[in-house]
Write a structure and sequence with these properties.
Elements lengths: L1 H5 L1 E7 L12 E5 L7 E3 L12 E3 L9 E3 L3 E5 L12 H6 L7 E6 L1 H4 L11 E6 L7
Parallel strand pairs: 3-4, 6-7, 7-8
Antiparallel strand pairs: 1-2, 1-8, 5-6
Length: about 140
């Protein structure tokens, strides 16, 4: 979560399915630095501040572990598999404004290349590579 709050440039790829399923090239994406420390919120709401990282008050909030209005939602994923996106996530992402209907799965190097798109397919989905911490 701290890496998201700090923002920066990350390696990412679009998750595709069906006829579009192929191995897309990796690119880079710039996640803006959060304008303030992460804010705890009850839910995603229209009108929340752009470039501000929000986290839900409850630990079992839909499929979104964090969100940034005008950018998209984030799901931390540490395992090889991840179930389909929970109900309500599409509605929440739609409230994030332009460019908000995107869900970014934050993945460790071990699973980054093999992670696949989840249902519902109508949500634009991406994998972001989160490197392992450097040994101290």
């Amino acid at each position: 979560m701290d890496r998201l709050e700090q923002g920066g440039t990350f390696v990412y790829r679009e998750l595709l399915s069906g006829k579009r399923k192929r191995t897309p090239a990796d690119g880079t994406i710039d996640i803006p630095r959060s304008s303030q420390p992460r804010q705890v919120a009850e839910r995603v709401e229209v009108g929340q501040h752009a470039n501000q990282l929000y986290v839900p008050r409850t630990s079992n909030y839909t499929a979104i572990d964090a969100w940034m209005p005008q950018f998209g939602g984030f799901q931390m994923t540490v395992g090889k598999t991840h179930g389909n996106i929970k109900g309500g996530a599409a509605d929440d992402l739609a409230k994030l404004g332009p460019n908000g209907n995107r869900l970014f799965f934050l993945l460790p190097p071990l699973y980054y290349k093999t992670f696949t798109k989840k249902t519902p397919q109508t949500i634009d989905q991406f994998a972001i590579l989160v490197p392992y911490p450097e040994p101290v």
